[in-house]
Amino acid sequence: MSYSEPYTAYQPAVAEPRGRAVPRLFSGILGLVLTPVALGLLSYGGLREQQNELAAVVTHRDAPAIALLAGGAILLLVVAALGAWSSTGPLLGGLVWGVLPGVVGLAMPEWDLRLLRALPFDLMSGASIWLFSGGLIAAGFLLVGTGLAATLVRRRR
Asked: Which UniProt keywords are listed (predicted)?
């Protein structure tokens, strides 16, 4: 006696793999655009706060400086969160705008000084503090780490 398969028409519900090109492209573009904006906001806001702290008597808080710092931090959070969509954004943003200038600054500081001179004075002052204190390379490595972690998590699924 032979029996036929009772569920031959049954097709398992397997999700079709979606293309990753569009998320990678948009994540990469957003990472490259938002990261320098965030770093610029943090640099300028930090400079303003530093100038206020260095004043002999600080009688008020600089609300625009605090807003710039908060805005820059939130934008960096957005770049890191792009890793949920595609790790390209945090990886590119961290490498291009953090790790690369930080490594160049450590190896050949005169190159970074030439690049900094292209910025407006206030932004140049704030960015130089970030660059030569190691904050820029640290932010870059944190974004790269976020991108790598997102990749590893995605591969484990």
From this structure: Membrane, Transmembrane, Transmembrane helix
Query: Which residues are CB-contacts of 107 (< 8 A; sequence separation ≥ 6)?
Result: none
143, 35 Cβ separation under 8 angstroms: yes
Residue (of 66, 89, 64) closest to 78 by Cα position: 89
Provide the sign of the torsion angle of the four alpha carbons 58, 63, 66, 72, taken in this order. negative
Q: Return the DSSP state at 98.
A: I
At a CB cut-off of 8 Å and minimum separation 6, what does 30 contact? 78, 79, 82, 89
**What is the Cα–Cα distance from 47 to 54, expressed in whole angstroms?**
10
Confidence of residue 2 (pLDDT cuts 50, 70, 90): low
Cα–Cα dist 89/117, whole Å: 27
Residue 147 has pLDDT above 70, yes or no: yes
Please name the helix (run of DSSP H) or strand (run of DSSP E) that holds residue 121, with its range, or none.
Answer: helix 121-133
pTM: 0.77
For residue 84, give the DSSP letter: G
Query: Please, what sign has the CA dihedral across residues 47, 53, 57, 62?
Result: positive
Ramachandran category for residue 87: left, alpha or beta (phi over 0 → left; psi -120 to 50 → alpha):
alpha
